[in-house]
Amino acid sequence: MAHLVKVAFNNEELLAVVSENKQYVSIAPICNFIGLSANRQKAKLKSDPTYEAKLLKVQTKGGMQEVFCIPLDKLNGWLFSINPNKTKPEVREKLIVYKKECFRVLYEHFNKKATVQCALPDNMSTRISGYKGQLKRKQNEIDALRMENFALRNRIKELENDPRLCEAYNAALDTMHAIDDLRGDMAELYDMLLTMIGKMDRRSIFLGALRQRVSIPLKTGLKE
């Protein structure tokens, strides 16, 4: 027979139903608390088998009652599916914060998983290292030009009343133009690096999905 226990959820205390060593939560009191129609939510949960909703008989002070429940580990997903604009004003902001946290946790979980499972195709690591080396060299050139530009600006200040000011000013402009050109080169190299990493991620995701379907080891060294 199912029985009631108190459980902690998202810094709140809920009354849960324990049946066959598994914890469930009743939908009706949560709907009443946040301002939703319990009947509509029951229909929604019944229509989606992933929620595993069911009726459980529970002994209460008023006698044996049937309670519509979902497993406690499905509660996050159900709350995540609720539109905050349809809830009571006093709980709306709290639900928005909760859903934002769900988005962040889901992204970090799947992004980290994809990164761990990622395998570099042949020569990809070498090519990425090459791009990184070029970026570093370009950055060093920019740093050197910045120092040169700084020195020229100081020189200009010293020569404000000197007829050679125009020549020094033009040299500073040339230096600034050179910096802009190098920045363009770095942007192009950075875009190429992102493209290579994007291809690597798409290949890894495709190979991971294919590996799960055929259940055999696959080589990840695809040729471009």
How would you describe the overall organization of this protein?
It is a single chain. By secondary structure, the chain is α+β, with helices and mostly antiparallel strands. It has two domains: 3-107, Roll (Mlu1-box Binding Protein, DNA-binding Domain); 118-214. Helix content is 62%, strand content 16%. The chain contains six helices and five strands, in the order βββααββαααα. The chain has helices at 27-34, 38-47, 75-80, 89-117, 124-158, 165-214; strands spanning 3-9, 12-19, 22-26, 54-60, 63-71. Strands 1-2-3-5-4 form a five-stranded antiparallel β-sheet. A hairpin with a 2-residue loop joins strand 2 and strand 3 (22-26). Helix 1 (27-34) packs across helix 2 (38-47) and helix 5 (124-158) runs antiparallel to helix 6. The radius of gyration is 31 Å and the shape is elongated. The two termini are 61 Å apart. 6% of the residues are buried. Residues 218-224 have low confidence and may be disordered.
Strand proportion: 15-25%
Largest sheet: 5 strands, antiparallel
Tell me the span between the first and last alpha carbons: 61 Å
C-alpha Rg, in Å? 31 Å
What distinguishing features does this structure have?
Mlu1-box Binding Protein, DNA-binding Domain; 224 residues; 2 domains; 5-stranded antiparallel beta sheet; 62% helix; alpha+beta
Structural topology:
Blueprint: E1 3-9, E2 12-19, E3 22-26, H1 27-34, H2 38-47, E4 54-60, E5 63-71, H3 75-80, H4 89-117, H5 124-158, H6 165-214
Helix pairs in contact: 1-2, 5-6
